[in-house]
Design brief:
Blueprint (H helix, E strand, L loop, with lengths): L2 E3 L2 E3 L6 E5 L6 E6 L3 H20 L2 H17 L1 H12 L3 H22 L15 E9 L2 E5 L5 H14 L3 E5 L6 H12 L7 E3 L4 H10 L5 E5 L2 H12 L4 E5 L4 E5 L5 H13 L9 E7 H15 L20 H14 L4 E4 L17 E4 L6 H4 L6 E7 L2 H8 L4 E2 L1 E5 L3 H10 L4 E4 L14 E2 L2 E2 L8 H4 E9 L18
Parallel strand pairs: 6-7, 6-9, 7-8, 9-10, 11-12, 11-17, 12-15, 14-15, 17-18
Antiparallel strand pairs: 1-2, 3-4, 5-21, 10-20, 13-14, 16-19
This protein binds 7-thionicotinamide-adenine-dinucleotide phosphate (TAP).
Length: about 500
């Protein structure tokens, strides 16, 4: 029963079975019958049927559902953390302390935000009419989410959409469907009517593509790779729907010569290894002033050798596996090819022993990476830090911006003017100063350049999930209005 349609768990009708695996062992967690186009049609039908009532619910009614859902998620926190850890291969500590509390907080935030969807103030701009702005939901939203943070990415898609009065069909990545189903179940238990939140678990090319191209879906929101995002945009274009894309990243981590080296080294380790590097904002390219370069590389490598790589259910584990064997092969291949023109300082291989059954990869530092090489330009999405030196601030900013991506970046400096320049000139949706990774529900998350457009989280996300209507209300009661004479004048 791995589809959640119209408030009920159902089985997929594609006839295609799929094994959800634990990437730390290769064991089967659950066998799923994938969704086919008929399941997507049923989910879109349920969402369409639920739209009228949900879109007319008062803000406080929607807020009450979300507030209850936050409480229910908190009650199920340990269960959610365990399922998330198991199918996404996350260390249990990360699932418990980041994924689940982040989702609870997001749900509570959108519960509160649902009550204050602001428009422009009403006023008599023409003198003869009251103009007001209505922010209205768009309709059925079709969302597609990735495997790296299955629960949080589902929440980022579902919560602003339903808080604003839309109904939704979400297709999570087929390898990590379980916590998205739990989120839909919780929202329904909290009082969202059947059909408000639906989840179809199927493959991207079948269920995802059908959802994005569906004529009854008014908007697509997608989080995933830039390559698939472009395909999604092309599919959505055929039905002329609104598109919101959160895509890949290759975040620069710029360490100026006045930086606190200890802070930068520890910051780089945490920001590169979070979620085994499978984080679209993870520090991927460390750009370090030549005066600190050798110490920075040695410091990060020293900490990487102390990282505890291990079973995901062990509270002591720092680094879990990558999400799948296919992804492990991709990461390992990129590091192998980088050896031709760069230095692998530590890591660069999978651990042996008990961990060899899983998709583990050692924390890896690659120094003197060649500009323009694959490791410099392409997303690795693994625990691999590419490091290059720079000599002056202009070069640092240029290297930070030397990427087609623009999701996130950080600048490490004690000089307030340098920090100001970096945050202004680095082209990314988020720039941290002397930190890298923290996110908060109140602030937007989204990309520049090929990292996509539109924002997740925060009140800014309502711009994606609402449309603005101008209502112009005559206040004169005059039958023959002055402006009519511009169009026609009665003879005589
Ligand atoms: P993708 O391979 O792009 O897959 C993302 C989702 O798209 C999955 O659900 C996938 O389904 C689906 N999909 C694949 N082909 C499709 C198609 N033709 N039509 C509709 N849907 C399709 O990304 P991923 O490997 O799961 O996730 C990693 C990527 O996501 C990275 O690039 C990362 O940077 C990005 N990401 C970005 C953000 C933000 S906020 N910008 C956050 C997290 C991740 P199946 O996998 O089930 O086939």
């Amino acid at each position: 029963m791995h589809q959640f349609i119209g408030g009920e768990h159902r089985s997929g009708t594609s006839g295609t079975p799929f094994e959800v695996l634990d990437p730390s062992t290769g064991d089967v967690v659950e066998e799923v019958l994938l969704a086919g186009p008929e399941d997507v049609d049923a989910a879109v039908g349920a969402a369409r049927a639920a739209f009228g009532e949900w879109s007319r619910a008062t803000p406080v009614e929607r807020a009450t559902v979300l507030a209850r859902a936050a409480t229910l998620l908190e009650e199920r926190a340990e269960e959610l953390a365990r399922v998330e850890s198991r199918h996404a291969g996350k260390p249990i500590r990360l699932a418990r302390e980041f994924d689940v509390p982040g989702t609870v907080d997001n749900t509570a935030f959108f519960g509160a935000a649902a009550r204050r969807l602001d428009g422009m103030a009403s006023a008599e701009y023409s003198g003869d009419h009251t103009s007001s702005i209505r922010r209205e939901p768009i309709g059925v939203v079709g969302s597609v989410s990735p495997w790296n943070y299955p629960l949080q990415m589902a929440a980022w898609k579902v919560l602003p959409a339903v808080a604003a009065g839309n109904t939704i069909v979400l297709k999570p990545a087929e390898i990590t469907p379980l916590t998205s189903l739990m989120l839909a179940e919780v929202l329904t238990e909290a009082g969202a009517a059947p059909g408000v939140v639906n989840v179809v678990t199927g493959s991207g090319p079948v269920a995802g593509q059908h959802l994005v191209g569906h004529p009854d879906v008014a908007m697509t929101s997608f989080t995933g790779s830039t390559a698939v995002g472009r395909q999604v945009m092309a599919t959505a274009a055929a039905t002329g729907k609104r598109v919101h894309l959160e895509l890949g990243g290759k975040a620069p981590f710029v360490v100026f010569d006045d930086a606190d080296l200890e802070a930068a080294v520890h910051g780089a380790v945490a920001a590169n290894l979070i979620n085994a590097g499978q984080d679209c904002t993870a520090a991927a390219r460390a750009i370090v002033h030549r005066s600190l370069y050798d110490d920075f590389v040695a410091g990060v490598a020293d900490l990487y050798r102390q990282v505890r790589t291990g079973p995901t259910d062990d509270e002591a584990t720092d680094l879990g596996p990558l999400s799948s064997r296919t992804h492990l092969d991709k990461v390992a291949g990129m590091v192998e090819r980088a050896r031709a023109d760069a230095t692998v300082v530590c890591g660069g291989r999978s651990p042996g022993g008990d961990l060899a059954r899983g998709c583990y990869y050692e924390p890896t530092v690659v120094s003197d990476v060649a500009l323009g090489s694959e490791l410099w330009t392409d997303e690795v999405f693994g625990p691999v830090l590419a490091v290059v030196p720079f000599d002056d601030d202009d070069e640092a900013i240029r290297l930070a911006n030397d990427t087609e991506y623009g999701l996130a970046a950080s600048a490490w400096t004690r000089d307030t003017y340098r920090a100001g320049r970096a945050s202004r000139e680095i082209r990314a949706g988020c720039v941290w100063v002397n930190d890298h990774i923290p996110i908060i529900s109140e602030m937007p998350h989204g990309g520049y350049k090929h990292s996509g457009f539109g924002k997740d989280m925060s009140a800014y996300s309502f711009d994606e999930y609402t449309q603005v209507k101008h209502v112009m209300h005559d206040i004169t009661g005059i039958a023959r209005k002055g402006w009519h004479r511009t169009v026609f004048t009665l003879p005589g």
